[in-house]
Design goal:
The protein has helices at 2-26, 56-65, 87-104, 121-136, 155-168; strands spanning 40-44, 50-55, 69-74, 81-85, 110-115, 140-146, 173-182, 185-192. The chain is α/β, with parallel strands linked by helices.
Length: 195
Amino acid sequence: MIVINLKWALTRFLFLLEVSFITRKNQNEDLVNEAIRFREVLVIGQNGEQLGVMMRREALEKAYELELDLLCVAPNAQPPVCKILDYGKYRFEAQKKAKEAKKNQHVTEVKPMRLSPVIDTHDFETKVKQASKWLNDGMKVKVDMRFRGRLITRQEVGLKIMNDFTAALSEIANVEKKPSLEGNIMSCVLGPKKK
């Protein structure tokens, strides 16, 4: 009796595991041909004309007659909408569009730069030169200034240096985030001016 219950429990567990794997696998995929499980579907022909509401089997037969596939394009509609098309060509076009969109996407890089409230003139000029190089290359610059120890009481000195830094780069940069203090770090963000 215990052996039978154990065998039943094991087969039930394997069945549920297989079902969860199949549903997880199919969540990212399109509903095509036999994977469509709706009883009735609204069918759109290959040229965009509506063929009306049909039973799933009829719609599949219609697609197979034309040697094409049936793709569910709106599974949440009432009734679900399916289109007759060449699925291989459809997937190829979708991948091509995604690749093109990714190629045309422009990611702006944000470069970090750290200043000190007690920075020397030459170091300041070097930092301005490096930031201007990054801004001319189209990158944004995030400027941080950390106040250590008793320097936190001299925030006005740090703010003056930060304002001098933004003023030195004002011809080629816009201040996207004004200098603000968060904890013991004052930061601002500079972006390149549009050409």
